[in-house]
User: Which sequence fits this backbone?
């Protein structure tokens, strides 16, 4: 073919290629527009599946936490033949250090029964309804519990101090140490030996026969969930 023919062919082919490209683009656009509703349905389906997976994951985490909580208090239930309960409320105005549990007289709960968490004393039952009860925490100002410093068997009275426990009437000659473990003595609400807390500070009065220990509670009283009511 002559150069002129080649040039003419190329010139003719350019518009044809442009037209073909335009038609191809138009077809692709049309196909995309047709497929758009299906894509939206697919995206909606994926979003729904993702929502369900998130809900299922949250449910499984809740079940795992519940199982762990039950397993933690099971030895306490078995040791004292106690009543397992869950903390379901607290005074909104925080006028007292107390919580509400979901077990009452129908489950065998009685006033002045002791209440324990997996790692120590929570408080005592102050009020009982058919299906729920009020627990006054060991840190409440009205709480009084016989206490023993385990290392030396020194006796005192544990009272609430809002955020901690104070053990009064410990003998002046008791060689107390920070870190000493304090447990319950046998009393109205508790059997002996339940962990109350750990000594964090000691106050020795020069003019008295006694000394005082500040105690950090063994149980995390600000994050209670599963507890055990201990029958008297």
Assistant:
């Amino acid at each position: 073919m002559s150069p002129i023919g080649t040039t003419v062919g190329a010139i003719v082919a350019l518009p044809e290629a442009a037209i073909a490209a335009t038609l191809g683009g138009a077809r692709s656009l049309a196909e995309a527009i047709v497929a758009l509703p299906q894509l939206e349905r697919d995206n909606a389906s994926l979003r729904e599946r993702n929502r369900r997976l998130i809900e299922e994951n949250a449910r499984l985490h809740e079940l795992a936490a519940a199982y762990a909580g039950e397993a933690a208090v099971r030895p306490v239930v078995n040791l004292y033949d106690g009543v397992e309960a869950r903390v379901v409320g607290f005074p909104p105005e925080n006028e007292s250090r107390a919580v509400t549990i979901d077990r009452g007289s129908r489950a065998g709960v009685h006033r002045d029964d002791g209440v324990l968490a997996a790692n120590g004393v929570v408080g005592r039952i102050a009020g009982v309804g058919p299906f729920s009860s009020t627990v006054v925490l060991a840190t409440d100002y009205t709480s009084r519990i016989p206490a023993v410093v385990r290392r030396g068997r020194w006796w005192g009275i544990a009272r609430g101090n809002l955020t901690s426990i104070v053990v009064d009437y410990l003998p002046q000659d008791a060689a107390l140490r920070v870190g000493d473990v304090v447990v319950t003595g046998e009393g109205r609400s508790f059997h002996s030996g339940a962990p109350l807390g750990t000594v964090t500070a000691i106050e020795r009065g020069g003019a008295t026969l006694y000394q005082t220990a500040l105690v950090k509670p063994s149980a995390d009283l600000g994050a209670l969930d599963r507890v055990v009511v201990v029958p008297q």
Observations:
- DSSP finds one helix and twelve strands in the chain.
- Confidence is low (pLDDT under 50) at residues 3-14.
- The first helix runs from residue 3 to 80.
